[in-house]
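We emphasize that the prediction below concerns an isolated chain of 226 residues; any contacts that depend on oligomerization or on bound cofactors are therefore not represented. The input was used exactly as deposited, without trimming of termini.
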Amino acid sequence: MKKHLILVTTLLTMSSSAFADWSSTVTVASDYLFNGVSQTDEGPALQGSLDWSGAVGWYAGGWASNVDFGDDTNIEADVYLGYYTAVNDTVNLDIGVAQYTYNGASYSSDGNYTEIYTKWNFGATDLNFWYAWDYFGTGAGHYIVMLNHTFTINDELTLLVGIDRSSSLDDDKWQWEPGSDSYNHWQVTSNFSTNGFDFSLGLHGTDLDTYGDTTLLLSVARTFQF
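Result of the prediction step, given as a C-alpha coordinate string:
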Protein backbone atom coordinates (compact mmCIF):
# COMPACT_ATOMS: atom_id res chain seq x y z
CA MET A 1 0.00 0.00 0.00
CA LYS A 2 2.69 2.51 0.97
CA LYS A 3 4.66 1.96 -2.23
CA HIS A 4 1.57 2.64 -4.32
CA LEU A 5 0.70 5.78 -2.39
CA ILE A 6 4.24 7.10 -2.73
CA LEU A 7 4.22 6.43 -6.48
CA VAL A 8 0.97 8.33 -7.04
CA THR A 9 2.14 11.19 -4.82
CA THR A 10 5.38 11.42 -6.81
CA LEU A 11 3.48 11.68 -10.09
CA LEU A 12 1.18 14.36 -8.72
CA THR A 13 4.04 16.51 -7.42
CA MET A 14 6.26 16.49 -10.52
CA SER A 15 7.19 19.80 -12.16
CA SER A 16 4.36 21.42 -14.12
CA SER A 17 6.30 21.09 -17.39
CA ALA A 18 5.73 17.33 -17.30
CA PHE A 19 1.93 17.61 -17.06
CA ALA A 20 -0.31 17.23 -20.08
CA ASP A 21 -3.63 17.81 -18.36
CA TRP A 22 -5.26 18.31 -14.96
CA SER A 23 -8.96 18.01 -14.20
CA SER A 24 -11.32 17.82 -11.26
CA THR A 25 -14.88 16.48 -11.16
CA VAL A 26 -17.48 17.21 -8.50
CA THR A 27 -20.55 14.95 -8.38
CA VAL A 28 -23.75 15.04 -6.37
CA ALA A 29 -25.62 11.71 -6.44
CA SER A 30 -28.83 10.38 -4.91
CA ASP A 31 -26.86 7.31 -3.74
CA TYR A 32 -23.36 5.89 -3.93
CA LEU A 33 -23.79 2.57 -5.68
CA PHE A 34 -20.81 0.21 -5.92
CA ASN A 35 -21.82 -2.44 -8.45
CA GLY A 36 -25.44 -2.00 -7.44
CA VAL A 37 -24.86 -2.06 -3.66
CA SER A 38 -25.36 1.18 -1.72
CA GLN A 39 -22.34 2.49 0.18
CA THR A 40 -24.34 5.31 1.80
CA ASP A 41 -27.27 3.36 3.28
CA GLU A 42 -29.33 4.54 0.29
CA GLY A 43 -28.56 8.17 1.15
CA PRO A 44 -27.08 10.93 -1.04
CA ALA A 45 -23.38 11.26 -1.82
CA LEU A 46 -21.01 14.13 -2.50
CA GLN A 47 -18.00 12.98 -4.51
CA GLY A 48 -14.91 14.60 -5.94
CA SER A 49 -11.83 13.68 -7.94
CA LEU A 50 -8.50 15.18 -8.94
CA ASP A 51 -6.93 13.67 -12.06
CA TRP A 52 -3.72 14.02 -14.03
CA SER A 53 -3.28 12.58 -17.53
CA GLY A 54 0.02 12.44 -19.36
CA ALA A 55 0.77 12.90 -23.03
CA VAL A 56 1.80 9.26 -23.55
CA GLY A 57 -1.10 7.48 -21.86
CA TRP A 58 -0.17 7.52 -18.17
CA TYR A 59 -2.69 8.88 -15.69
CA ALA A 60 -3.09 9.15 -11.93
CA GLY A 61 -5.59 10.58 -9.53
CA GLY A 62 -7.59 10.53 -6.36
CA TRP A 63 -11.32 10.22 -5.63
CA ALA A 64 -13.37 10.57 -2.44
CA SER A 65 -16.96 10.13 -1.29
CA ASN A 66 -18.96 10.01 1.91
CA VAL A 67 -20.04 6.50 2.96
CA ASP A 68 -22.38 5.05 5.58
CA PHE A 69 -21.80 1.45 6.68
CA GLY A 70 -23.75 1.81 9.91
CA ASP A 71 -20.65 2.58 11.98
CA ASP A 72 -18.23 5.49 12.35
CA THR A 73 -16.59 4.98 8.94
CA ASN A 74 -17.69 8.00 6.92
CA ILE A 75 -15.20 8.65 4.11
CA GLU A 76 -13.83 6.54 1.27
CA ALA A 77 -10.72 8.00 -0.35
CA ASP A 78 -9.05 6.19 -3.27
CA VAL A 79 -5.96 6.71 -5.38
CA TYR A 80 -5.15 5.13 -8.73
CA LEU A 81 -2.44 4.87 -11.34
CA GLY A 82 -2.92 3.55 -14.85
CA TYR A 83 -1.93 3.48 -18.49
CA TYR A 84 -4.27 3.92 -21.47
CA THR A 85 -3.32 3.03 -25.04
CA ALA A 86 -4.87 2.36 -28.44
CA VAL A 87 -4.17 -1.23 -29.50
CA ASN A 88 -5.42 -0.52 -33.03
CA ASP A 89 -8.02 1.66 -34.75
CA THR A 90 -10.95 0.03 -32.93
CA VAL A 91 -9.55 -1.44 -29.70
CA ASN A 92 -8.31 0.49 -26.64
CA LEU A 93 -6.74 -0.86 -23.46
CA ASP A 94 -6.66 0.64 -19.96
CA ILE A 95 -4.66 -1.10 -17.21
CA GLY A 96 -4.00 0.10 -13.69
CA VAL A 97 -4.02 -0.29 -9.93
CA ALA A 98 -6.29 1.33 -7.34
CA GLN A 99 -5.97 1.66 -3.58
CA TYR A 100 -9.23 1.88 -1.63
CA THR A 101 -9.04 3.47 1.82
CA TYR A 102 -11.71 3.98 4.49
CA ASN A 103 -11.61 6.64 7.17
CA GLY A 104 -13.49 7.99 10.18
CA ALA A 105 -12.74 5.48 12.94
CA SER A 106 -9.62 3.77 14.26
CA TYR A 107 -10.76 0.48 12.72
CA SER A 108 -11.86 1.91 9.35
CA SER A 109 -8.52 1.19 7.70
CA ASP A 110 -9.05 -2.53 8.34
CA GLY A 111 -11.14 -2.49 5.15
CA ASN A 112 -8.41 -0.94 2.96
CA TYR A 113 -7.46 -3.00 -0.07
CA THR A 114 -5.68 -2.86 -3.41
CA GLU A 115 -7.21 -3.79 -6.75
CA ILE A 116 -5.76 -4.21 -10.23
CA TYR A 117 -7.85 -3.72 -13.34
CA THR A 118 -7.92 -4.21 -17.09
CA LYS A 119 -10.47 -2.41 -19.27
CA TRP A 120 -11.00 -3.18 -22.94
CA ASN A 121 -12.89 -0.81 -25.21
CA PHE A 122 -14.27 -1.98 -28.56
CA GLY A 123 -15.96 1.11 -29.96
CA ALA A 124 -19.26 1.42 -28.07
CA THR A 125 -18.65 -1.75 -26.02
CA ASP A 126 -16.54 -2.06 -22.85
CA LEU A 127 -15.30 -5.28 -21.23
CA ASN A 128 -13.70 -4.64 -17.83
CA PHE A 129 -12.04 -6.81 -15.18
CA TRP A 130 -11.00 -6.06 -11.57
CA TYR A 131 -9.13 -8.33 -9.16
CA ALA A 132 -8.34 -7.90 -5.44
CA TRP A 133 -6.40 -10.42 -3.36
CA ASP A 134 -7.52 -9.01 0.03
CA TYR A 135 -11.06 -7.79 -0.61
CA PHE A 136 -12.15 -5.28 2.08
CA GLY A 137 -9.36 -6.61 4.27
CA THR A 138 -10.96 -10.07 4.55
CA GLY A 139 -8.07 -11.95 2.95
CA ALA A 140 -10.40 -13.22 0.21
CA GLY A 141 -9.56 -13.13 -3.45
CA HIS A 142 -12.30 -11.33 -5.39
CA TYR A 143 -12.98 -10.38 -9.00
CA ILE A 144 -15.50 -8.34 -10.97
CA VAL A 145 -16.23 -8.71 -14.68
CA MET A 146 -18.35 -6.07 -16.40
CA LEU A 147 -19.85 -5.74 -19.89
CA ASN A 148 -21.32 -2.39 -21.00
CA HIS A 149 -22.65 -1.12 -24.31
CA THR A 150 -23.43 2.53 -25.05
CA PHE A 151 -26.00 3.64 -27.60
CA THR A 152 -25.51 7.19 -28.92
CA ILE A 153 -28.82 8.99 -29.30
CA ASN A 154 -27.36 12.36 -30.30
CA ASP A 155 -24.41 14.60 -29.44
CA GLU A 156 -25.70 15.22 -25.91
CA LEU A 157 -27.57 12.02 -25.02
CA THR A 158 -26.41 8.40 -24.65
CA LEU A 159 -27.93 5.23 -23.21
CA LEU A 160 -25.76 2.68 -21.42
CA VAL A 161 -26.88 -0.91 -20.88
CA GLY A 162 -24.62 -3.05 -18.68
CA ILE A 163 -24.23 -6.13 -16.54
CA ASP A 164 -21.47 -7.17 -14.14
CA ARG A 165 -20.73 -10.06 -11.80
CA SER A 166 -18.90 -9.79 -8.48
CA SER A 167 -17.42 -13.06 -7.16
CA SER A 168 -15.48 -14.15 -4.08
CA LEU A 169 -12.78 -16.76 -4.65
CA ASP A 170 -12.69 -17.65 -0.93
CA ASP A 171 -16.25 -18.09 0.32
CA ASP A 172 -14.99 -19.13 3.75
CA LYS A 173 -13.58 -15.59 4.13
CA TRP A 174 -16.13 -13.50 2.22
CA GLN A 175 -19.69 -14.10 1.04
CA TRP A 176 -22.04 -11.47 -0.28
CA GLU A 177 -24.84 -13.07 1.69
CA PRO A 178 -25.18 -16.46 3.40
CA GLY A 179 -24.67 -19.20 0.85
CA SER A 180 -23.87 -16.78 -1.99
CA ASP A 181 -20.28 -15.96 -2.95
CA SER A 182 -21.30 -13.96 -6.05
CA TYR A 183 -24.07 -11.78 -7.42
CA ASN A 184 -25.10 -10.06 -10.66
CA HIS A 185 -25.76 -6.35 -11.11
CA TRP A 186 -27.48 -4.75 -14.09
CA GLN A 187 -28.13 -1.18 -15.13
CA VAL A 188 -29.83 0.92 -17.79
CA THR A 189 -28.53 4.48 -17.59
CA SER A 190 -29.11 7.60 -19.68
CA ASN A 191 -26.39 10.26 -19.71
CA PHE A 192 -27.05 13.83 -20.84
CA SER A 193 -24.57 16.69 -21.13
CA THR A 194 -25.43 20.39 -21.42
CA ASN A 195 -23.78 23.70 -20.51
CA GLY A 196 -20.81 21.95 -18.90
CA PHE A 197 -22.92 19.72 -16.65
CA ASP A 198 -23.27 15.93 -16.94
CA PHE A 199 -26.60 14.46 -15.84
CA SER A 200 -27.14 10.74 -15.29
CA LEU A 201 -30.36 8.85 -14.59
CA GLY A 202 -30.15 5.08 -14.24
CA LEU A 203 -32.10 2.08 -13.07
CA HIS A 204 -29.94 -0.43 -11.16
CA GLY A 205 -30.71 -3.84 -9.71
CA THR A 206 -29.07 -7.01 -8.37
CA ASP A 207 -30.05 -10.61 -7.72
CA LEU A 208 -29.13 -10.34 -4.03
CA ASP A 209 -31.94 -11.26 -1.63
CA THR A 210 -31.05 -9.24 1.47
CA TYR A 211 -29.85 -5.94 -0.08
CA GLY A 212 -28.99 -4.41 -3.46
CA ASP A 213 -32.62 -3.62 -4.25
CA THR A 214 -33.68 -2.10 -7.57
CA THR A 215 -32.77 1.59 -7.34
CA LEU A 216 -33.20 4.72 -9.44
CA LEU A 217 -29.90 6.63 -9.36
CA LEU A 218 -29.66 10.31 -10.26
CA SER A 219 -26.40 12.26 -10.41
CA VAL A 220 -25.15 15.66 -11.57
CA ALA A 221 -21.46 16.27 -12.26
CA ARG A 222 -19.26 19.15 -13.36
CA THR A 223 -15.68 18.73 -14.60
CA PHE A 224 -13.14 21.51 -14.42
CA GLN A 225 -10.02 21.57 -16.62
CA PHE A 226 -6.89 23.43 -15.53
